[in-house]
Amino acid sequence: MTQELSKHERAVAARFGIHPEDTTPAAEARRNGWSTGTRLHGGPIRVHGREVEQPVDIVLTAVGLEMVLAIPAVGDGAERSVTFDARLWEAVK
Questions:
Q1: pLDDT digits 0-9 by tens, 26-42
Q2: Domain map (residue ranges) of the chain
Q3: pTM, 2 dp
Q4: What is the phi/psi pair of residue 39, to 5°?
Q5: Could you give the CA distance from residue 8 to residue 24 in angstroms, rounded to a whole number?
Q6: Across the chain, how many H-helices and E-strands are there?
């Protein structure tokens, strides 16, 4: 299920020269049907076959025109911008 931008969101994006159809984190989230409140599981990060970062779960707090903000799903952590390129991500039901 793909979420489309509203007419207003497209107008704002055009005004600022943003192309939300690009490969931004927000565009990827929309393509995958992820929105505010979606919990995601990110697999471990591996370099040369060695695990260098543990798996992580996050909850999306905002999907903007280009950026996505999230907080850790467990514990207390600061909200931060996220990208989806270093891990394999999947929505947690």
A1: 989 998 999 999 999 99
A2: 7-91
A3: 0.74
A4: -95, 130
A5: 19
A6: 2, 7
